C-alpha cells in the first residue's frame, strides 16, 4: 500500500470532487471517499469534468452495486462503475463484483426490481442510451487497493462480457487500482508526461512559431509509453483509445503477423508537447528526443493496439 500515493489521491478527491458530490446517506468518511473514487473513475474514462461526473454518482442503498453511470458520447459507450475506498489494501470482494455484474445484467433486460435512489431516477436516460444501436457497455471497477483482481472476479466479468459479445463485441471491463487512480488525479492536476523516442530518418518543419519533428519510431518504444501511462497518453485526444473495434483488431494482427508492412498500413502517431530536448546531434538517420508534457492526439488506436499485440505475444 503506497501511503503517500493514497494521501495524494485523498487530497485530490477532497479538493476537486467533494464540492460537487451529494453526500446524502454517506455518513462515514470512507463512504464519501468511495463516491469520490466513482467520480474520478468516470472522469478518467470519459474525459468529462469533475462537476459533471460528480452528478453522475449513483451510490445508494438501492444501487444494486452500481455506484456511477456516465455516457461517453464520443465513444458511444455507457459506463457502469463500482468503487471502493480502502486504506487497508483490501479491494473489492468477489461478492461485490458479483452484485455489480448482476445489477448491470438486470439493466440489460430493463429489470429495475430492487433499484431505488439516484439510479432509478435516471431510468429513462439510461434505457434511452442503452438501446440506441451501436451503444457499447463498459464496466469500470475502481479501488484504492494495490491488489489485482482475483481469478474468481475476472471469471465473473469475463462471463458477463462473453454473454454480451455473443453476436458482436459490445461489452468490456476496466480495472482501475491505486496506481491507475493516482496517475489519473496527477494528470488532471497538470502532471508531466515525458516521452522518450528514437526517431530514425527524421526531419523537422517550422512555421508560425511551431516546430514539428517526424520520423520512424520502434513499436516497442510506443508499447513502453502505454505500459507507463496507459490511457493518460490520450488525455487531450477527444476520442481516446477505442477498444475492441475491427480496426484495432486489424492493427494488432498486422503488428504480429506482418510487422514489415505495419508502417504502410496505418496513419502513424501524432504527439503534441510543450517542450522537447534533443540529444547531441549525430546524423539524420537516428536522433534521440524527449518530449515534455506530451499527449497522443492522433493514433490512439495504433498505440493501444500495439500494446494489445505486445501483451498477447504477437509482436
Description of the molecule:
The protein is 39% helix and 21% strand. It is an alpha+beta fold and 315 residues long. A four-stranded mixed sheet has the order 1-2-3-4. A four-stranded antiparallel sheet has the order 6-5-9-8. α7 (151-164) links the parallel β3 (136-143) and β4 (171-176). α1 crosses α8 (178-188) and α10 packs across α11 (300-311). The two termini are 33 Å apart.
Structure described in brief:
The protein is α+β, with helices and mostly antiparallel strands. Helix content is 39%, strand content 21%. The strands form three sheets. It has a four-stranded mixed sheet. The protein has a four-stranded antiparallel sheet with strand order 6-5-9-8. A two-stranded antiparallel sheet has the order 7-10.
Amino acid at each position: 500500500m503506497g501511503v503517500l500515493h493514497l494521501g495524494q489521491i485523498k487530497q485530490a478527491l477532497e479538493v476537486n470532487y467533494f464540492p460537487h458530490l451529494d453526500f446524502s446517506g454517506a455518513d462515514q468518511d470512507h463512504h464519501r471517499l468511495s463516491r469520490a473514487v466513482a467520480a474520478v473513475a468516470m472522469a478518467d474514462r470519459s474525459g468529462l469534468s469533475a462537476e459533471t461526473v460528480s452528478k453522475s454518482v449513483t451510490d445508494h442503498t438501492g444501487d444494486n452495486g452500481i455506484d456511477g453511470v456516465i455516457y461517453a458520447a464520443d465513444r458511444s459507450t455507457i459506463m457502469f462503475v463500482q468503487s471502493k475506498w480502502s486504506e487497508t489494501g483490501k479491494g473489492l470482494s468477489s461478492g461485490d463484483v458479483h452484485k455489480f455484474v448482476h445489477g448491470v445484467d438486470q439493466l440489460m433486460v430493463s429489470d429495475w426490481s430492487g433499484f431505488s435512489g439516484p439510479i432509478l431516477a435516471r431510468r429513462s436516460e439510461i434505457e434511452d442510451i442503452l438501446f440506441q444501436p451501436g451503444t457499447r457497455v463498459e464496466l469500470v471497477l475502481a479501488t484504492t487497493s494495490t491488489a489485482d483482481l482475483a481469478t474468481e472476479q475476472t471469471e465473473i466479468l469475463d462471463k458477463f462480457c462473453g454473454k454480451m459479445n455473443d453476436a458482436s463485441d459490445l461489452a468490456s471491463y476496466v480495472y482501475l487500482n491505486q496506481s491507475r487512480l493516482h496517475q489519473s488525479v496527477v494528470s488532471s492536476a497538470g502532471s508531466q508526461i515525458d516521452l522518450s523516442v528514437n526517431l530514425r530518418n527524421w526531419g523537422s518543419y517550422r512555421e508560425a512559431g511551431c516546430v514539428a519533428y517526424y520520423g520512424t519510431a520502434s513499436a516497442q518504444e510506443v508499447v513502453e509509453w502505454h505500459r507507463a501511462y496507459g490511457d493518460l497518453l490520450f488525455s487531450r485526444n477527444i476520442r481516446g483509445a477505442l477498444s475492441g473495434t475491427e480496426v484495432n483488431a486489424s492493427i494488432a494482427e498486422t503488428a504480429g503477423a506482418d510487422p514489415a508492412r505495419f508502417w504502410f498500413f496505418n496513419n502513424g502517431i501524432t504527439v503534441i508537447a510543450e517542450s522537447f530536448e534533443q540529444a547531441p546531434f549525430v546524423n539524420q538517420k537516428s536522433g534521440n528526443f524527449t518530449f515534455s508534457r506530451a499527449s497522443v492526439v492522433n493514433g490512439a488506436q495504433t498505440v493501444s493496439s500495439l500494446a494489445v499485440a505486445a501483451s498477447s505475444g504477437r509482436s
